[in-house]
Amino acid sequence: MSPKITTELLKQLRQVMKNPKHVQEPVQAYIVPSGDAHQSEYIAPCDCRRAFISGFDGSAGTAIITEQHAAMWTDGRYFLQAAQQMDNNWTLMKMGLKDTPTQEDWLVSVLPEGSKVGVDPFIIPADQWKRMSKVLRSAGHDLVPVKENLIDTIWTDCPQRPCKPLIMLDLSYTGVSWRDKIVALRSKMAERKVMWFVVTALDEVAWLFNLRGSDVEYNPVFFAYAVIGMNTIRLFIDGDRMTDPAVREHLQLDSTLEPEFKIQVMPYGSILSELQAVGAGLSPKEKVWLSDKASYALTEAIPKAYRYLTPYTPICIAKAVKNASETEGMRRAHIKDAVALCELFNWLEKEVPKGTVTEIIAADKAEEFRSQQKDFVELSFATISSTGPNGAIIHYKPVPETNRTLSVNEIYLLDSGAQYKDGTTDVTRTMHFGTPSAYEKECFTYVLKGHIAVSAAIFPNGTKGHLLDSFARSALWDCGLDYLHGTGHGVGSFLNVHEGPCGISYKTFADEPLEAGMIVSDEPGYYEDGSFGIRIENVVLVIPAETKYNFKNRGSLTFEPLTLVPIQTKMIDVNLLTQKECNWVNDYHQKCREVVGAELERQGRHEALRWLIRETEPLVRVQ
Amino acid sequence: MSPKITTELLKQLRQVMKNPKHVQEPVQAYIVPSGDAHQSEYIAPCDCRRAFISGFDGSAGTAIITEQHAAMWTDGRYFLQAAQQMDNNWTLMKMGLKDTPTQEDWLVSVLPEGSKVGVDPFIIPADQWKRMSKVLRSAGHDLVPVKENLIDTIWTDCPQRPCKPLIMLDLSYTGVSWRDKIVALRSKMAERKVMWFVVTALDEVAWLFNLRGSDVEYNPVFFAYAVIGMNTIRLFIDGDRMTDPAVREHLQLDSTLEPEFKIQVMPYGSILSELQAVGAGLSPKEKVWLSDKASYALTEAIPKAYRYLTPYTPICIAKAVKNASETEGMRRAHIKDAVALCELFNWLEKEVPKGTVTEIIAADKAEEFRSQQKDFVELSFATISSTGPNGAIIHYKPVPETNRTLSVNEIYLLDSGAQYKDGTTDVTRTMHFGTPSAYEKECFTYVLKGHIAVSAAIFPNGTKGHLLDSFARSALWDCGLDYLHGTGHGVGSFLNVHEGPCGISYKTFADEPLEAGMIVSDEPGYYEDGSFGIRIENVVLVIPAETKYNFKNRGSLTFEPLTLVPIQTKMIDVNLLTQKECNWVNDYHQKCREVVGAELERQGRHEALRWLIRETEPLVRVQ
Predict the structure, then answer these.
(1) What pLDDT is attached to residue B1?
(2) What's the rounded Cα separation, in Å, for the pair B276 and B299?
(3) Residues of chain B contacting residue A556, judged by C-beta atoms under 8 Å apart
(4) Residues of B in contact with A481 (CB under 8 A)
(5) How far is A302 from chain B (nearest CA, A)?
(6) CB within 8 Å: B554 and A474
(7) Average pLDDT of B499-526?
(8) For the Peptidase M24 C-terminal domain, which residue ranges apply (chains A, B) (predicted)?
(9) In sequence order, what DSSP letters do the residues of B124-168 get, joined into one string?
(10) What is the pTM of this model?
(11) Given this model, what pLDDT does residue A59 score?
(12) Nearest CA-CA distance, residue B507 and chain A, Å
């Protein structure tokens, strides 16, 4: 990787920072955050402004440019990559290290008195604006919204905002019509006494209208906003997508509908002025509900006294609890995904010893097998295909410079998933195609014990996922080991592979309680820098649990694995398992054999079926 | 319990709320919080203002009196008691129930426009003031500080503020001189670039100066504040306590000292004016460090730009990590405490079958045995001595109206502890003096499994206690059971039995990481309303753990029980224990037998020794 030369770009940016054509008054600093106007985790090429100005294209980072300096804040995952991708115009600010200043403190230390700090008000979330603005103001500076994005003014070959065709999901996939979702949303609004709800997250718009898109890679979403009133529905969306007769029919745009279900389609770019009009016309006590992560621009459109901000929106919470149709879809998607992986691992077992399979080839082969499955749309994230020391890089993605050949001497870690029209998958398996060492087996077995401890956990209704995180670590902790990431994240239903408001992590306290129908990943790991990485990940469904007693009538929950891919028994030190853990593995493998076996049979994939049967032989524990 | 008649008192209070002699301008509402000026958990009789005005004397509750209404907010522990103790002038506001308004929302709903809400600025913590004041202001009202406490103006027979003699602790107890504590504190202040530190919590003042008092029951503290500068030490304390030659010698008040260690003694009541003088004399960048729980009055004395507020003070954190002398003292105290409890349980075993032992008699007997031990000072909290259904009331304290006789047919729960000059104890044992039912044994064994899971847990350095809470519940959860309180709290060293900043609870996220030398309780339970209560509590010391590996060189921690009192094996269903858990019990009992046995022997308590030996017979698990 050679760094991007940014001298000329920075010069141009510093000019527009003073140019009255672009800024009301000169700004002495300009902030370029990572995100887009919807606070998406994955963004479209046209929104990769921070990568454009700096060269650093990791998933997290904030650039700040002043007259004299250009600085980049990013976290431990990206220290090396950022250092390699940026030229020496840039200072790397390593977040999480003790001596690294916060963005605000750094600004205060370098800016001349009474400076203006500019930022695109559509990109910065309102809560972050509030925090920064407070610190800057108390030091005599001002955070100011710059309406025109200054990067866009100098980005001459900026790609166009994608505007791809929409996919309509019928009731057999969604279980609930968009009309009924609107009715449910309005009843939540009535409960909280709000008159308007502003949908800003892309997956929330997609979920609400039972539509999907492909404007952002890996995430089946499309650029749009929506504003839902008690009697109106406004959808802000661009392009000729609304001229597609199938879309018009799906949204009943041409039907005679009760007025409260009539969707008004408006240009994507008109959201701000429309919202300002809503804000200006509010009567006392008419509140407007927004996510507290919505952009500063949209939040400011509503006068402060009328705002109702929550960390999780009612759509986010409703979307997380999958209904029967969604759950069935997720099950089907996971069976198809398991078929693809059985094919892949069977193929790898034969090919790896020849020394011709690289990480990239293996990843491509996984995609090939997945794409053969019904309703396959695309991958759900960039495949992590890593062998040996690359496995210890938690967010590794093979590129030609790092591409390593799989061998019978190293552990192989594959973390991959796909979007099918009926569901989203995300699975990690760690395999050895030769003979693993006793130490590798020992570590694998501790990770497996952690995986089982979460998967088999029984816990009361109302428990938050973060309370389960330590179960995943206990076996590792006992031996002085650990892993430095959370244990699980929410998973969308043919939507984003990472979604709120639930998860399993020691890092948060603000997650919503788990409830039956929620879907999360269970993915403990162990990573030895320079040697290997181990992770075992299933996507699991929260289901009611039968218990002997029922304290305060609260009811209990547990998990059902949706992922049905064998866990390599060769890697397990059976004598480190309890009988209960051993039974869990055998029951799990029995289910893989039955359910995925039947599908392999149906698809006539006999070699992969034989592989599955071999890999699901019961473990026997020596007492 | 008959309610207190408050009609006349409320009339008087409403008069002073309008009387210009007492208020600058009339207040339409007056708030009476629970606490004292130091935000203490336990308060002196002169600070029980809420109990005086309402009759309700539970440990938590806030009264608000308006022209028309008198309302009391309290939590689930006290719904019944508050309803019984208050007359019908009062409305009970049941906190935690869905329909109960917050104090702010209720005020907004009942007050006439533009009202003033008064509160004693010394009693309300600054963070709470901020929250309330914001809501009231946005509704057009004002929260105003009323300098004179209005309850005190009508409380004609208010007891005097206690001013009892001080106890001096020498180095053999504290391990560190007050001088060295000041040096360490100043170095923390220098690190954070603050010039002043204000000590507002009573246990922090006591710890800093190696002094103890008895102004508040159960907590060996005395009324005082301190303000530590980089070159000055001011101690605000009343009475003739500073004329005691031993105290003068301990604090070196008459010695020729370097000026920065010279303690200026000032009247307790002068803290505000002195702090205002400090605040007025600050140069730019001279910060003053306060707890964010300090009173509004003291916080306001420092101009906002100069305040440095943290949830935990450096004293709170230093105090939590016990040094070798303190740890040794705690060990000694726990051995003596165990001697007293062996005597008690031996006595109960003989006396209970006679049907003459009540909960109060048992509690008194426990105190009697404890008071025979060296360096005994007082109890560390009101003894919870409860049998049968009373055991299910988590914060039960026997009173004549509820006093129940112990029998061979009911479970007995004793949660008790003492202050010794060398340490503080807190232990719960649950016993049956007849034959427990299979169900009682089953529940007891789940609680024991939870207790062991925490006590034997190994976890990385830097782990926060709340991450261990679920370990204590896992065995109960598996059967659909749970308990509705946290698992552990920090314990002081001859100081408050509840102290921050560490603990083991699902309820908090803001606890400080556990480190070697910290002391917490481990006390899971199970409570069946109307039937019985079970709790098993040891005080445990955080110690380094030896592990097979050492990930990232972080090191690991575990717990060593300081409490050494047998856990009744009669209550254990051995077949529900794993071999590892069984070994834990046997090792623990072996240690009780050796360590406490030696002390019983030394004290010539042969009958109690025989009881101990009987009660520590190893468990045998049938495979």
Answers:
(1) 67
(2) 10
(3) 477, 480
(4) 549, 551
(5) 16
(6) no
(7) 94
(8) 557-619
(9) SBHHHHHHHHHHHHHTT-EEEE-SS-HHHHH-TTPPPPP-PPPEE
(10) 0.95
(11) 87
(12) 9
